[in-house]
User: What shape does this take?
Amino acid sequence: MADQYGITVWKNQHKNKGWAGQAIEHYLGLPQNSLQAPDFATWELKVVPLRRAADGGLNVKESMAIT
Assistant: This one.
């Protein structure tokens, strides 16, 4: 999806941490922004990175703070 919407995932060997959320915003027809306001009428779209655990399950890679 990132390629389809022209979203940069890697730049100068650094990963764009927001690429997945930006791709989903494009897919849903939302304008890209970083405002502290809901993406929709009363709720905010959030994406969290996952990693594969040794047992094959998925774990949240980093904590998320919502203000």
Notes: The radius of gyration is 14 Å. The beta strands are 10-11, 14-15, 50-52, 58-60. Helices lie at 2-5, 19-27.
